[in-house]
Amino acid sequence: MRNEIEPDWSGVERIISRYEELPAVCHDYDPRAPEVAAIISRAINSHLADVSVEHIGSTSVPNCAGKGVIDLMVIYPQGRLEPVKTLLDALGFQRQSTRDPFPESRPMRIGSIGYDGAVFRIHAHVISADSTEPEGLRSFRDRLRADQKLSADYVARKKMIICSGVTDSVDYSMEKDDFIKGVIRSSE
User: Fold this and answer.
1) Which of 53, 75, 123, 172 is 20 to 30 A away from residue 88, measured at CA?
2) What are the domain boundaries of the chain?
3) Does the predicted TM-score (pTM) go above 0.85?
């Protein structure tokens, strides 16, 4: 574990705006999403170079429809959780406002950013490099990128969930969970 003086984030540019909780819907893929993910990744890495930021989820898969929320993995080395959370706060990210938030030992921060005339919502998943979770999330993303039928099946599953009347974002995520875990298990 590092024994460093906590950085001063007072000069950090606040690029993240307030998050708006919206019902789950299935939007067409937006090709601007990777550009937005790159902007946020650069902002994080300009202050914490030892942190890895990766774009995951539907918005990281070309032509994959979804909620339109940009999911990022912010992977930190051992002992660096608190500086990451503090930096995300300084950038403008907020704690989750829904029921069943991720624990502070594996937090998710939320926010939005305006880009090219649109507002993009963001979920920043803060995950330890020691965890097995990043590999599973990468595997799922990469399988969707490599297999158009699997990606189409995932979109069909999401549309079916919404057509069944599930629009609460937490319930929607839980309904997708079996599909995601099945894909990850089949790639192990």
Assistant:
1) 172
2) 33-186
3) yes
Q: Could you tell me if 75 and 91 are in contact, meaning their C-beta atoms sit under 8 angstroms apart?
A: no
Q: Cβ(126)–Cβ(109) under 8 Å? A: yes
Q: How far apart are alpha carbons 183 and 136 in whole angstroms?
A: 9
Q: What is the pLDDT of residue 9?
A: 75
- Mean pLDDT, residues 23-32: 95
* Residue in the structure block whose two tokens are 């990469």: 142
Average pLDDT over residues 153-177: 94
Instruction: Name the token pair of 156.
Output: 């069909």
> Which of 35, 22, 4 lies closest to 121, judged by CA?
22
Report the distance separating Cα 154 and Cα 20, nearest Å.
Answer: 25
> How far is CA 52 from each of CA 55, 75, 109, 174, 177, rounded to the nearest angstrom?
10, 5, 16, 26, 25
Q: Which CATH superfamily is domain 33-186 in?
A: Beta Polymerase, domain 2 (3.30.460.10)
Least Cα distance to 136 among 101, 175, 99, 180 occurs for 180
Identify residue 179 by its one-letter amino acid code: F
Residue ranges of E strands in the chain: 52-56, 70-76, 94-95, 108-115, 118-128
- Strand-pair category, 108-115 with 118-128: antiparallel
For the cut 70, the answer to whether the pLDDT of residue 179 exceeds it is yes
Closest CA to 40 of 122, 118, 97, 96: 122
